[in-house]
Structures are given as C-alpha cells and as structure tokens.
C-alpha cells in the first residue's frame, strides 16, 4: 500500500518554544486518519508543514513523494485542504466560487459541489460573507470535495459548528471516502465525533507521537477499572503499567493497556486494597482524556 504522507523526526519551534519534538508517522493510501491532541499539541503546525506553509527546523516530511516545503504545482492539485477557519474569498457568491475554483483542478466534479451546497437552501447568488459559519463550512468542504483530491487534509473542520452541521459533514465525509477511495487526514477538538469516522488515529502530545493504532485496537487494549479509595491508593502514581491514576470521591480509578491481572498485580505491589473492584466501560472521549490527561 502506497505511503502518501511520511513524517520522520519532525521538529519545529516558535520563539524558542519547541512545538514539534521528533514527531514521526505515516499515512498510507485509503482510509480516514485522525491526528488528535489537546490544544497546543502541535496539530496545526503539523498541517502547516504538510502543506508547505512552514519548513520544519529538523526532520523530514514528504507528501505524495515531494518534500513538503517544495511541493510541485501538480502535487498541490492532488491535495484538498480545508484549513482552520475555512478562509475563502468572502466577497464572492457561491456560484462565483465554484466557477473560480473549477479551472485549477483537472478532475473537477461540479455535481459533488452542487449536491452538498444545495442542502443550504440558499440561492447560489448569495455571497459567502452573508452565510452563517456552518453554511460557509459546507461551501468550503464542497469546494474541496469537488476537486476529487488524492489526499484530503481537514484542519479542525468542526471549529465553531453546532451538532447538526458537524453530523452533516461527518456523514458526507464518510460516504465520500467510501465512494471515491480518498485518503483523509483530519484534526478536530471534538474527539467524540471521530469515534465512528476514522479508521486510524495518531495521538500527539508535547510535539511527539504518544499513540498510534487502528480505532478498534485502541478500544480493545485500553481499559479502565475502579476500586475503593484508601490511603495506599492515594499514593499511586503513573507507571509503565498504570497509564493514568485518578481519585474521585470514594473511588480510585486506573487505566492501562495491560491486562487485568497485570494491573491488579501492580496495584497489590503498592499495597492498594482492591475492594469493590470493577471494570468501567470507556467512551472514546474518556479514553482520549485518560491517555492525554484531563488538565
């Protein structure tokens, strides 16, 4: 399977602050990839490097075979980008935007754009500046999808959108990827939206890759247990076995990628009493926060 994006030991800093610190990952052809992390983890900086807006201070990044800071015009035409904030030509009408963009992309599909934009139920003569934020996001996504890109990059596509617009975009993205075989790399602060969308996740923290796996494998291997709180459990700290430790009310809560027997053994070695022991199912957002830290 072809590798479309390859980042190897990426480093970048702003005013002496290290934002990316040896980030490495690969995006292979096919499927939907999520680049996840808390605010300040380095997601948008990574996207800017992928698109050639920034040259990394260290490491290597290739996109569709080209060095990311020297993308050829023919390579850029194969990449559909929806950048944070949906920046477009606000003074143009919906119809003018479609007419303007179509000349730059040899595989332009006007019906793809029209199908999504018609759901706005506003005239094509309406200027982008007169649309709501959610409506503008639909227009911008329609412009990206109509390009039939080989690689689609969506940076924080859900910013400022209500639940209805987020669901609409997710449904369209899923159907579009299945129909056209487009590879999608996206970031979002609303991680629970991605649970049913992405096939593979990259979780970054402090500019490094913290975790990488297929979505299903993450839920199979990352588990949570709760037991009665005690003075011994209050002294527990994170270890190679205990990925997270938290105390809420009368209970202590631990998460781990290890099996239950190993977790219990690690706790017993710290003299923690395991009364009222039970496994607590994890939703995707809870699992993400337990892995990256809630605060």
TrEMBL record:
Q: Per its UniProt record, what SMART domains does this chain match? A: AAA
Q: Which UniProt keywords apply?
A: ATP-binding, Cell membrane, Membrane, Nucleotide-binding
Molecular-function GO terms, alphabetical = ATP binding; ATP hydrolysis activity
Q: Which CDD domains match?
A: ABC_DR_subfamily_A
InterPro entries of this UniProt entry? AAA+_ATPase, ABC_transporter-like_ATP-bd, P-loop_NTPase
Superkingdom of source: Bacteria
Q: Does the keyword ATP-binding apply?
A: yes
Q: Which residues form the ABC transporter domain?
A: 5-231
List the protein's name: ABC transporter ATP-binding protein
Q: Which organism is it from?
A: Pseudothauera nasutitermitis
């Amino acid at each position: 399977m072809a590798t479309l994006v390859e980042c190897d030991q990426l480093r970048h800093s702003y005013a002496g602050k290290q934002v990316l610190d040896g980030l490495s990952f690969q995006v292979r052809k096919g499927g939907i990839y999520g680049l996840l992390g808390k605010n300040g983890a380095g997601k948008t900086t990574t996207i800017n490097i992928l698109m050639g807006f920034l040259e990394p201070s260290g490491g290597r990044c290739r996109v569709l075979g080209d060095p990311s800071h020297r993308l050829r015009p023919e390579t850029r035409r194969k990449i559909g980008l929806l950048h944070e904030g949906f920046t477009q030509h606000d003074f143009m009408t919906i119809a003018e935007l479609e007419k303007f963009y179509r000349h730059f992309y040899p595989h332009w599909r006007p019906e793809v754009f029209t199908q999504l934009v018609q759901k706005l139920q506003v005239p094509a003569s309406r200027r982008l500046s007169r649309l709501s934020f959610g409506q503008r996001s639909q227009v911008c996504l329609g412009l990206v999808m109509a390009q039939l890109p080989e690689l689609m990059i969506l940076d924080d596509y859900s910013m400022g959108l209500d639940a209805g617009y987020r669901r609409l975009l997710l449904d369209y993205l899923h159907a579009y990827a299945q129909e056209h075989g487009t590879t999608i790399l996206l970031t979002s602060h609303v991680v629970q939206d991605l649970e049913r969308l992405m096939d593979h996740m990259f979780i970054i923290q402090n500019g490094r890759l913290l975790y990488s796996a297929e979505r299903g494998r993450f839920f199979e291997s990352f588990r949570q247990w709760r037991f009665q709180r005690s003075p011994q459990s209050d002294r527990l700290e994170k270890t190679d076995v205990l990925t997270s430790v938290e105390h809420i009310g009368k209970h202590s809560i631990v998460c781990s990628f290890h099996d239950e027997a190993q977790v219990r053994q690690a706790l017993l070695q710290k003299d923690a009493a395991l009364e009222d022991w039970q496994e607590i199912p994890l939703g995707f957002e809870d699992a993400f926060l337990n892995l990256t830290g809630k605060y």
